[in-house]
TrEMBL record:
CDD domains on file: P-type_ATPase_APLT_Dnf-like
Membrane topology: Multi-pass membrane protein
Taxonomic placement: Eukaryota, Metazoa, Chordata, Craniata, Vertebrata
InterPro entries according to UniProt: ATPase_P-typ_cyto_dom_N, ATPase_P-typ_P_site, ATPase_P-typ_TM_dom_sf, ATPase_P-typ_transduc_dom_A_sf, HAD-like_sf, HAD_sf, P-type_ATPase_IV, P-type_ATPase_N
Binding residues annotated for Mg(2+), in chain numbering: 383, 385, 815, 819
EC nos: 7.6.2.1
Protein name per Swiss-Prot or TrEMBL: Phospholipid-transporting ATPase
Amino acid sequence: NTFCKRVRANDRDYNEKFQYASNCIMTSKYNIITFLPVNLFEQFQEVANTYFLFLLILQLIPQISSLSWFTTIVPLVLVLSITAVKDATDDYFRHKSDNQVNNRQSQVLIGGILQKEKWMNVRVGDIIKLENNQFVAADLLLLSSSEPHGLCYIETAELDGETNMKVRQSLSVTSELGDPNNLAQFDGEVVCEPPNNKLDRFCGTLYWKDCKYPLSNQNMLLRGCVLRNTESCYGLVIFAGPDTKLMQNSGRTKFKRTSIDRLMNTLVLWIFGFLVCMGVILAIGNAVWEKEVGALFQSFLPWDPPVDNFLFSAFLSFWSYVIILNTVVPISLYVSVEVIRLGHSYFINWDRRMFCSRSNTAAEARTTTLNEELGQVEYIFSDKTGTLTQNIMTFNKCSINGHTYGEEQHMREREKERERALDFSAWNPLAARDFCFYDQSLLDAVMEGEPAVHEFFRVLSLCHTVMSEEKSEGELLYKAQSPDEGALVTAARNFGFVFRSRTPGTVTTQELGKAVTYTLLAILDFNNIRKRMSVIVRNPEGRIRLYCKGADTVLFERLHSCNHELMNVTSDHLNEYAGDGLRTLAVAYRDLSEEQWEEWSEHFRGADKATDCRDDRLAAAYEEIEQDMMLLGATAIEDKLQEGVPETIAILSLANIKIWVLTGDKQETAVNIGYSCKMLTDDMTEIFIVNGHTVQSVREELRYNAEAQGWGGACAFGNGCGGGGAANCMPDESKCPPPQAPPPSLLESISGEFALIISGHSLAHALEADMEREFLETACACRAVICCRVTPLQKALVVELVKRHKKAVTLAIGDGANDVSMIKTAHIGVGISGQEGIQAVLASDYSFSQFRFLQRLLLVHGRWSYLRMCRFLCYFFYKNFAFTMVHFWFGFFCGFSAQTVYDQYFITLYNIVYTSLPVLAMGIFDQDVPEQRSLEYPKLYEPGQLNLLFNKREFFICIAQGIYTSVVLFFIPYGVLSHATQSNGVPLADYQTFAVTTATALVIVVSVQIALDTGYWTAINHFFIWGSLGTYFTILFAMHSSILFNIFPKQFHFLGSAHNTLGQPVVWLTIALATVICIAPVLAFRFLKLDLKPQLSDTVRHTQLVLQKKRKPGGRAGRGVGGAGVASGSTLGRLGRGGSRRSGYAFAHQEGFGELITSGKNMRLSSLALATFASRHSSSWIDTLRRKKHANSPGAHKLILWIDKKIKFPPRRKRQEAELLKTLSFLSFVHSSGLSSKPF
């Protein structure tokens, strides 16, 4: 099959024929050869750059150019160079990061010898050696392992976000090739599927020694995984570099533009259209003037040689005016934008409040082009593991026999009061040093020998699948399949019930210093349907007991009826724990008689050996024995959140930002974290769960949720069909048109707070073309959305769906390689420099070490960047239209000859010197409110989301103000100077006087305007604004001086104009009059707007001023302003949830480890241990009891006879409880009579 991939081990020559990808990864966009053409191509995608290139070409034509070509080419080259340097710098850091990954060392088997090679030099078909805690370099076929039976353990957090360990196993035929010499002789050939992005599937065949062996995902180690709890293993490289499943899920690096950039492209096209219209009007005027008036001057003022008629004159005039009027969009605008963005990026990098001292990591703006979009985010897509959580589990609280233990302390208090943590090492030499618990009463209960407390910790030390390794005496290392289980076993260890070791049939513990070995009779394995696991053990005294831990909702249904009162008390404790966001498990036990065990074990063995429906039969057998249990209590584990996560999510929610969690973890774990970080609350109206496995079921669940949200009955999607239930929403397709999503206005009117939880298999159907709109509208009507068990590609598809249909700015944040795809897809990608490697940081636009810094990035830096950029653009367009449109009005008075109003040096310096620095200062430093107010009033963020500060409407207002200013600046001086005279009677109505007066008035008016627009004054603002005015006058007098005229007589024509003009009082009166007429309407409008319709920022600023005047340091009188409408959701109550109790169950465990343990495949057993195991199983408890009791008591013979008699009659289900109670009563009698010395 040409679509299959063929890989032969240890044969590079054979594999290189297929030209497979190397293991070198590349996240950068350019190299030395492609940088210049690709970067220029990207830059000329900006309409403005193409526009300026076109103008430059026009200016090179002398017949139409009235300005020198250098006025355009110098700024254009400057802009292109600055942007190119910035892009090159960004890409240099990507290259540097790529090199860090590509240069990692790996051990490759070459010529029978292990040699160190860089990752990028690893080839398909190579055999490489991995050691414990190393990252997997490529997608490998596991050949052998240091663990028995070719097993190895991996952590896949970077791939799917799951923190629990997974087991992989090599083929038995290759598992013995553990020696490099044997592996060097291995020449097997693998035929498999081509590279793809499916993380959970692999299909292939190994051909070796004339045999073929099927391969599956269980035999594969994928790039991005970490080898755990395994000394070493060997693997054959199947996919390398870009072909690996990790990179296939990463997506391509995309060129990102902000919404303001896209709007600017549109506006530039509009302005160019406006420019063409003005050019046409003036060209028509030129044609009319040349025909009617200009023809009269031909005798002494003939046309230039190329011009022979008025139409050709008009044609040339059109292009001349296009060049003159091009300053409506000066190229300095783009230089200024890049400088401002660079300044904002440095502010992010320098922010000490976003610096993490613990990891010594500062925030980093890895790109400079997206800063203002940080102020417009509406949707945040977050990973869970490592982003919201620290991936650290701690035993926090527990409930035992109706008593709750564990203190409520915040993390900072714990750090301050570390010395208050219990000291276990004083009496328990095997205690874990890093375990912290603060409640002395629980330790006292253990020391006092309370039976329930002892039994509780005995369950935790026995009911698990943890492996123990004792490297030296007393130094225990637990290899837990999930961090939850590791935390529970460690808790039991510290409270005196230490799990020491296990064999396939025994578990050895040390209980309060005494070694105890239990016979392990059975492990009833955990799975996501059972939500519990059990073990059946026999203690040294011969008692058989089942220990169980699992979800309280499942376990409580299987308790004995006498547990009702204890169950109610424990339920209250579980509610309290769940409210604190803790992960809970209930703990119970059941005593079994020998005959009950024998009868059940027969059923169990039969189900285990069944060839059909094995899983169902095993589940039925488990269900049979896990009944009538006695409740012991419950555990509460804290999945430690990153510091400040709940507060950050709450503040961002108040800013009208919707947060979706996209995680590869299981549903219960993700929901538990949702409650921990306050995304989900018990006050929500309803929490919807979509868990269907088919298109039909997913559609029905989505429609049912839509009805519950109040979209109008069964026909919520407008299909026109009647009916009352969700099932009725699926009519005959021939009778009803396709379903349609509700209109946005209807969504906005929905009252109540909802949450949506959807699994990965349901999401696959929901993202199909005919259902994606229904899913999107349902999700967007919810306050919180959690997507569980999603692949990296699904994360990107969800982000793309929101981008495409909601037209909202999206931000994706994550810390692992499984988040790279969504980080690249979102408008803004944020990488957390956490524990899962650096792949997310490499692909991100911004990076920092803590999720809590996100609120500062958005609400402070993002909001300020958006505000500054919008004010900058509004002012820039205003000042340039005011400057340029004067030429348009002047055209009607100069015969449409394309004569400029101003001196050409003023035209060149206006945007570069006279008005550039004040607007840069405003664009970099301006603020409307201080940073602490931005965080206190999250509603201040909403104008950015609604795009209120710079849009098409605001643009036209700026243009209108600029045109109005140009009218005043032209006609006021024209009207005054046309009749004015100097003190000696000489008229002032000359071109040079008019040019100087208009230019001076223009600089003064725009300087006053920016002073009004500046909301936050610094010394730099003062210096730039007033310094620019001083610079203008200095340069003006210098250029009109005789010194420059004498040196360059042909370049400086305005000899003495400045001195003569500005020495006249009437000129200053004209300038003052024009300034007042330009500024007065602006002041009046702003005062009225502030008084009649103030914005929230105005109110906050006013409140701050009032507080400063009243000098009330402790008050925050304006708190209600920002919170108006903020906490509206908290008054909803439990509308749809009534008195239902929420379970805090979450257990990051995986099925299959119980079978591994009982089979012994994952253990190194000596022959002595195996013999001991066999002998323990072969001896009967009855025989043991006979020997003991015959030796100790003559009355014990009666006990044996009684039990022998009882076990002759196998109990029936309906008589089981009565028989057990009789047995317990008799044993109690035996104990009270002194026949048994052991407590019952």
